[in-house]
Amino acid sequence: MDILKRIAEKREREEKLAWEGTFGEYIEMVRERPELAQTAHSRVFNMIADAGIEKDDNGKTRYLFFSRELFGLDRAIERLVEEYFHSAARRLDVRKRILLLMGPVSGGKSTIVTLLKRGLEQYSRTDAGALYGIKGCPMQEEPLHLIPQSMRPEVEKELGVRIEGNLCPACRLRLKEEYGGRIEDVPVERVLMSEDDRRGVGTFSPSDPKSQDIADLTGSIDFSTITEYGSESDPRAYRFDGELNKANRGLMEFQEMLKCDEKFLWNLLSLTQEGNFKAGRFALISADELIVAHTNEAEYKSFIANKKNEALQSRIIVMPIPYNLQVTEEEKIYEKLVRQSDLSHVHLAPHALHTAAIFSILTRMKDSKKQGMDLVKKMRLYDGKSVDGYKEADVEELQNEHLDEGMSGIDPRYVINRISSAMIRTEAHCLNALDILRAIKNGLDQHPSISKDERERYLNFISISRKEYDELAKKEVQKAFVYSYDESAKTLMDNYLDNVEAYCNWTKIKDPLTGEELDPDEKLMRSIEEQIGISENAKKAFREEILIRISAYARKGKKFDYNSHDRLREAIQKKLFADLKDVVKITTSTKTPDENQLKKINEVTATLIDKYGYCPTCANDLLRYVGSLLNR
Ligand SMILES: Nc1ncnc2c1ncn2[C@@H]1O[C@H](COP(=O)(O)OP(=O)(O)OP(=O)(O)O)[C@@H](O)[C@H]1O
Ligand SMILES: [Mg+2]
Ligand SMILES: [Zn+2]
Ligand SMILES: [Zn+2]
C-alpha cells in the first residue's frame, strides 16, 4: 500500500540523516564548515534567505519563505527580516531581545510563527541547516561548549567560530563522571528539530497564573530520583524539560506573553540579555534560542502604560504586523481559507471574493489628506492599479501618511465565517458577490468589536463595494454579449475600415449590393469614434493613424484584424454594446422572453459558463441583475 510505503521511506530518510560520532570528529566537521556552529538566530535568518529572495523593479524585497503563504504583507515582512532576523544573525544587540509581533486579530501573526517553526524542523534536515548537539544532553546543546573557557580564544581563531555559553549542569556532571574529563570522547549527534519530539522547537502557553509553575519554563526537580541522589543540586535529580530547555538551539513561541505573570517574564529578562537563565539550584544555564511572542495593539498599549514593565519593555523588540491592504492579495487569502475550509464544494461566483475583499480593504484604510484623494482611489493605487493623476511615488507617500494603517478593520476570518454562515443558512450551491455582501452586512450587528459609529462607516463601505461590483457586472455582461457577437464585431470593423480608407484617400465606396458609388459614411465612423472620446478635431489624425498601422501590417505581410489596434477594438466593442444595450436590457429583464430573446440569453449564458467561470445559477443571477441595473 502506498501510504505504508511512504511511511517507510520517511523513516529511511530520517535514519539516513542520523549521525553519531565523537566530539573529536565534530571538531573536524566544524573546521570544514564553521556554519554548523552558528547561533539559532543566524540559522533562522539563513533559512529565510535560502528559501529565496526576490527584488522587484522598485527595489522592494520579497522573501519567498513567507510570501508563499502570506499575502500582501511584504512590507511588514521585509522590515521584520531586515530589522530583526538579519541584524540578530549578525550578533547585533537585537538578538538579545524578545521578538514581539504586534497586530490585529487574524492578521497572520500565528501563521508567521508557525512558518518559522515548521521551517526550522525542515531546515535542520537539510545540509545547509544541519546542527549537532551533545548526545544525551536534555538541551541538545552546542558541543563546542565542552571547550574550557581558557582555551576558547585559541580554538575560536583556529576554527573561525565564536563559542558562547557554558556546559549545562547535566553534561558537566557526565563529562566528569562518565568520561573522566576526556572531552574528545563525548558523543555528539545530529539534531533533527521537531516540536512533537520537543527538540529545538517549543511553545509556552500560560495557563492559570495561580497554579502555573515556573517549572514549565525552566524544568523541575525530579521527585522520583531525588532520594537516590540526595540533593536538589544534583543534576540527575533535576529534569531539564522546561520549554526553554527544549527549545534550545531553535525557537520558542511564547503565547499570550503580555497576559503572563511577571515572574515568568523576569526569567526571560536574563535569558535574553545574558543568554542564560536560572533553574533550580544550578548555576546559570546557557541557552541560544529565538523567543517569539505575539499580541494585539490594545494589549501592548496597556502593557507599556504600566511603569512596572519598563525594564522588560526595553528588552522587547516590537514588529508591527498590520493587515494586508491590497484587494488582489486579500482575494488570495480568502481563496486559501476557502480551500482549507469545508466550503470548497460551493461555487463562488466570479468577483464574489473580490467584492468582499474591496469591503475589507476599505475598512482597514485611513483617510488621506492628499488633495483629491479618496478611499476608492487609494485602494486602487495600493492594489497596483493606475489612477489618473497619480504616480508610483504617491503610493509610497500614502503608505507613510499613517503609521498605524492596517492595524484595525475587518479581519479575513470574519469574511470567511460570514460566507460559511450564508451557505449554511441558504443551503446554496453557489454564492455571488451580492450574497456575500449581504451576509457581511447582516453579521455586523453581532460583531463583538464594532462600535455604532464604525457600523455606519462600514455600511457605507458596503454600498461602495456594491457600486464597484455593479461596474464589474455590467462590463462582464457586455463582454459576454460582445463575445457572442464576435462575427458582428468583425463585420462592423471591416465596414469602418473601408470607410476610413475611402475618407483618407478621397475616394468613394462601392455599395456591395447595388454597385453604386457612395461617399464615406461619416455618421457610422463618428458613432464608433465617439465611443472612445475622439473629438471632431481629432478624428482625422485617428483615421490616418489607423491607415498607417494597416499599411505597416501589410508591409510585414501581417493581416490587420480585430485585435490589431486596442483602442479601435474597444471602440467597436462599446459601439456594439451600445447598439446591444437595448437588446441586453430587454433580454435580461423580461419575464417572458420570446423565442429570439431566449436564444440570445442562452448564448450569453453559455459564454459566461464556458469562458468566464460562472455556473448556471450565478450566470442567470448576473443577467437578471445587470438587466435591472440597466433599467434604472
Ligand atoms: N496576509 C495574510 N496572508 C495569508 N493568510 C492570512 C493573512 N492574514 C491572515 N491570514 C490567514 O488568516 C488566518 C488567521 O491568521 P493567524 O491565525 O495567523 O492570525 P493571528 O494574527 O495569529 O490572529 P490572532 O490574533 O487571532 O491570534 C490564518 O489561516 C492565516 O493563514
Ligand atoms: Mg494567533
Ligand atoms: Zn548539556
Ligand atoms: Zn455559481
Unreliable parts: none
In total, the number of strands is 18
Present as ligands are: adenosine-5'-triphosphate, magnesium ion, zinc ion
Q: What kind of sheet is the major sheet?
A: 5 strands, parallel
Instruction: Just name the CATH architecture of the domain at 33-131 and 191-320.
Output: 3-Layer(aba) Sandwich
Structural class: alpha/beta
Mean pLDDT: 89
Organism: Melghirimyces profundicolus
Pfam families: AAA_PrkA, PrkA
GO molecular function, one term: protein kinase activity
Protein name: Putative serine protein kinase PrkA
Task: Describe the structure in your own words.
The protein is α/β, with parallel strands linked by helices and 632 residues long. Among the domains are: 21-31 and 132-190, no CATH class; 33-131 and 191-320, 3-Layer(aba) Sandwich (Rossmann fold); 485-589, no CATH class. It contains 27 helices and 18 strands. It has a 5-stranded parallel β-sheet. The chain is elongated and about 115 Å long. It binds adenosine-5'-triphosphate (ATP), magnesium ion and zinc ion (2 copies). The site of magnesium ion has 3 residues, from helix 6. Residues 70-73, 103, 105-111, 296, 324, 333, 336-337, 412-413 line the site of adenosine-5'-triphosphate (ATP). GO terms for molecular function: protein kinase activity. It comes from Melghirimyces profundicolus. Residues 21-372 form the PrkA AAA domain.
Record keyword descriptors for this entry:
single chain, 632 residues, alpha/beta, Rossmann fold, 5-stranded parallel sheet, 3-stranded antiparallel sheet, 27 helices, 53% helix, elongated, binds adenosine-5'-triphosphate, binds magnesium ion, binds zinc ion
